[in-house]
Amino acid sequence: SANKDYIASIDYINKLLRVFLFTAREHLYDVKLTDMIRPSGVCLVGDAVLITDMHRGTLSRYSLSSSRADLIWTCAELTYPSGVTTDESGFIHVAGLQSPYIYIISPEGE
What does pTM read for this prediction? Predict the structure, then answer.
């Protein structure tokens, strides 16, 4: 996923969020996602990143800077969340793998 400042990807095997500087395409840092079991979906929203964890059933929002990512909130009790995107109003849409649900979550995680 990319925005005007950053590119983010998930290394789900090593449970890492990998952050790159968009303009220079250079690697900035990795964040170990220790609280996640199977990170899967990733979506950049401004200076934040949304990450789903399929096995824990969570969606987490992290703030991004040039040197670190900090957890802002976690929304739980989702059924196998995998795909994540946002709409023009800032609401978050999460699709569940092997689930008929599309969750719509506020920008505040509610």
Answer: 0.89
